[in-house]
Amino acid sequence: MAFSLPPLPYSANALAGQNMCQETLELHHGKHHNAYVVALNGLIEGKGLAGKSLEQICAEAGKQGADGLPVLNQAGQHWNHILFWQVMSPKGGGDKLPGALEAKITQDLGGLAQFREAFKQAGVTQFGSGWAWLVIGTDGKLKVTKTPNGANPLSTGEGQPILGCDVWEHAYYLDFRNVRPNYLDNFLNKLVDWEVVATLLQQGGMKSGQSA
Amino acid sequence: MSMHPGRRLLLRGALTVAGAALAAPRRGLAQAPAAAPAAAPSGPFSLPPLPYAADANEAAIDARTMEIHHGAHHRAYVNTLNAAVAQAPQLASLELDAVLANLGQVPEAVRTAVRNNGGGHANHSMFWQIMGGRGGQPGGELMAAIGRDFGGWDRFRAEFERASTTQFGSGWAFVTVAREGGLAIVQKPNQDTPLMDGHRVLMGNDVWEHAYYLRYQNRRAEYVRNWWNVLDWGKIEARYAAARAGTLKI
Fold first, then answer.
1. Of A97, A107, A108, which Cα lies nearest the Cα of A199?
2. How far is C-alpha B158 from the chain's CA centre?
């Protein structure tokens, strides 16, 4: 089996009204994400990945430090983008969160406003390429974190992501240029599909269903 | 390193003793263009003006990218560096290359900010300076060194392009130059620089996506190939000579 590029769960122009233009989505999904899939498939044989799930590959590569980076760069980015497409929606944004998710955010993070500020700060302060995350930590509590380049909380052992925002410049440069804080505000206020995040919380994280 | 051992020791002392005065004056960015910055700096570091019009590098980089890259990205590094230095005033009297070569002695509270933004300031100041030309090839001693250290121009170009395209995520590809003239190609992530290893930078290409995304999108390799067309080898040859003379800073 090989890894594959999942289709976007909406059309490429579906988020244009929420400041993620068609060109951004076409490039991001069809070029960037696809390149990670192709590169990862090219590593399966040489790196002995056959039979392993994408989640397992991320976790194992993360434990190998610098030696694991060639695999983690591609495997992490494949997993990260699979989550990223799912947590955005043309109907996303707003302050109406499913009850269980809102209660959990309030209990663990102090409330929606506090969460948004912490998540935005994580994204703004991730220097260079990387991701901002909302994860179910190993202690069961929600936690906001960030990772560089292709890493993710599966690879760092920090927990199970239920929301991720790509802060590589390719994610926002056509729409927001250098102004990453505005991209993060827009993501949190207009793009996040809270129903999906609530489902992932209930399920204890995302299973990509992909394996080598 | 251009500093003799005695001065290096002095710097170490200055970096560890808060508020210590340093005898050596900060000469600013020795490699920056001579023109005064457009606005008064709010700290010891300032944004050097572009040494050419924003559209001077159209053979590789569009004017809009140059304007944002210089006026927004580089400016943000300068401003954030000044903010960090405001919290560690003992750094303000030092030259940037000395600060970057001794990051371990920068107060921990501002070390990451100085690394990221001091590196960003040094890297971009170098980057603007070596462009604005019409490409081609260097001559003289530099070309001889390329032949000696890389086995020829084509191999040098190929190795540099490989370093540029395989740097995963944000970063730079550099050519370092030793005092005795030896050249080496290195990759660095984010805004790290060989200055942090005590090495001198002959030249470098920015492969953060912001350097090329508006024109090339995901096609970094195409940007890297075109970049050769705007290099000013006269400037790079002057940097080579300065490195050998021990006067090259950032």
1. A97
2. 21
Q: What are the CA-CA distances from residue B107 to residues B76, B164, B193, B222 (Å)?
A: 21, 32, 19, 41
Confidence (pLDDT) at A1: 72
Q: Are A11 and A25 in contact (CB under 8 A)?
A: no
Please tell me if residue B218 touches chain A, with a CB cutoff of 8 Å. Answer: yes
Query: Where in chain B are the domains?
Result: 140-245
Whether A105 and A188 have beta carbons less than 8 Å apart is answered as no
pLDDT of B26 strictly over 70:
no
Q: Which residues pair with A85 in a beta bridge?
A: none
Residues B161, B151 contacting (CB under 8 angstroms): no
Q: CA B167 to CA B189: how far, in whole Å?
A: 7
**Residue pLDDT, tens place only, B87-103:** 999 998 999 999 999 99
Q: Cα separation of B15 and B7, whole Å?
A: 12
B210 and chain A in contact, CB less than 8 A: yes
Nearest by CB to A128, which of B170, B214, B217? B170
**Chain A residues near residue B214 by CB distance under 8 angstroms:** 173-174
What ranges do the domains of chain A cover? Answer: 20-212
User: In the A/B pair of chains, how many CB contacts fall below 8 A?
Assistant: 55
Q: Is the pLDDT of residue B147 over 80?
A: yes
What is the CATH number that goes with domain A20-212? 3.55.40.20
Residue-level pLDDT at B55: 98
What is the CATH T-level fold of the domain B140-245, as seen in this structure? minor pseudopilin epsh fold (3.55.40)
